[in-house]
Amino acid sequence: MRTTAIGLALAFGCFPLVGATARESVVAIPTPFEIGDSPSGNYLAALIAGAERDTVAASTFFREALRADPKNSELTERAFVAALANGSFPDALALGERLILRDPTNGVANLTLGVQAIKLKQWALARAHLSKGGAARPRDVTATLLTAWTYAGAGDEKKALEVVDRLNDGNFTIFRDYHAALIADVLGDSVEATKRFKAVYAAEKNTLRLIDAYARFMDRHGDAAEAKRAYQAFDKLVPNHPLVKAALADLAAGKTLDPLVTSADAGAAEVLYGLGAAGGREGDELASMIYLRLSLYLAPTNALALVTLADFYDRVKQDERAVDVYEMIPQDSPLRVNAEIQIGLTLDALGRTDDGIKQVKAIVADRPKDVDALSALANLYSVQKRYDEAEETFTRAIDVIGTPDASNWALFYRRGITRERQNKWPLAESDFKEALTLFPDQPLVLNYLGYSWVDKGMNLEEGFNMLRRAVDQRPNDGFIVDSLGWAHFRLGQYDEAVKDLERAIDLKPSDPVINDHLGDAYWRVGRKLEAKFQWNHARDAQPEKDDLPRILKKIEDGLPEDKPAEAVVVPKKTGG
Q1: Could you tell me if 391 and 418 are in contact, meaning their C-beta atoms sit under 8 angstroms apart?
Q2: Per-residue pLDDT tens for 295-304?
Q3: Which terminus of the chain faces fewer neighbouring Cβ atoms within 10 Å, N or C?
Q4: What is the per-residue pLDDT across 507-536, written as a single tens digit (0 to 9) for each?
Q5: What is the largest CA-CA distance in the chain?
């Protein structure tokens, strides 16, 4: 896996931001599927499940297919990787041993068995497996760092640091010094640890994981003021992160902060977690899942690794798996409330919006001043078009924050949408303007306010300029390009509308609204066969229930005759 220093740095800090108090939540998500009697059928089902990143189904179907053909090397390897990605370690370890017997140089199998040896504190055996997986290659960051931690486990700091320092490529400098600092700290060498931690902090001040480790070390070594300063500096960049809030609260209470890593196996878990998070950011999905699963095998309660894995499942639309992982986050973790809010949002994604609302309402009842929980609840109300309740809940969140800053723009934007949907335009307009005051040129706000003005025949020049600025910032966002095209349509500028809407449909070919809009534009410029083609696409693309009758009528009858519009001068694009 190719990992850049930038990717590693980003990976340490990209976690959802929510409050920090634990509350129990249990949500049952059924995941039914049937095992077939046909080996080929099970194999095909496993391939489909793997492509969809349904790790439970993939692991199950590959295991069943392998039962029918246990000597098939390719099938053994596929079943091994599927079990590993699913965290099914009894199966994965047994299959890994079978693979090693057939191919002693199999990289993933050696990595997995090496990690097992680290868990069992069999340091020499771990090194033997890791060396076959690539530790001799200087750019193999995974095997190199894990090997260094095996020497740390054996108490050999000199050899551990010597191995770490083989990562002399500039791309790995921060990662190298970070693990050197952790190793020195675990082995009680405060002088070396201080030097390395300070080097890391001097090079990178925007990455939460590094700041957290540095601050905890400084606090334990008598400099609580520096720890507080480091957290507060990060808080200015990313306000209200639950881990930072929890650490600052502990410092204020005079508590000594625990180290992030206290043993060699925990250090190895940190290596795997960092690489897994980086892999997810860089699009290497399967490798990311394997790294995260191996990390959790060594450190099963690591909340950050669990959040990262659950977020990955969210992104690939494996919502049931995401809920399973969120439920594994420890009750006493500052990230537990985050997990419970995400469960509520995931239930909505599963079509269980009522259950999602119930889930998040319970959090709000426990934590009535939790802005993130209030915002999540308001968003769920919006999904159900309960705009009055959404508006009231967004207002509660805004009241809690007091004086807003740039990070709060979305609260005003979303409340503005709920007000616009209730025909409270003056209040909605005020919210959109406030969002732009907090975050000037935010493209979503520019798009919504600019289109609303044009649609209402208000502030035409400023409205079109807003839409164009939004498109300039997000030229590949089909919805924003659609807004500009539809604004032209609403003003009778049909040729311009066709140009923009054709761009939008190239970007979002399956969106029913954009297909409907382009059909309307084609009709108005006389391209009536193409118009009906687009409306048919809109009909087949699962439009909103309220939109379907209107689309069907247009397919049957076309658009009514265009009424002559008042002459409207649409301002030409300026600049850019």
Answers
A1: yes
A2: 999 999 999 9
A3: C
A4: 999 999 999 999 999 999 999 999 999 999
A5: 85
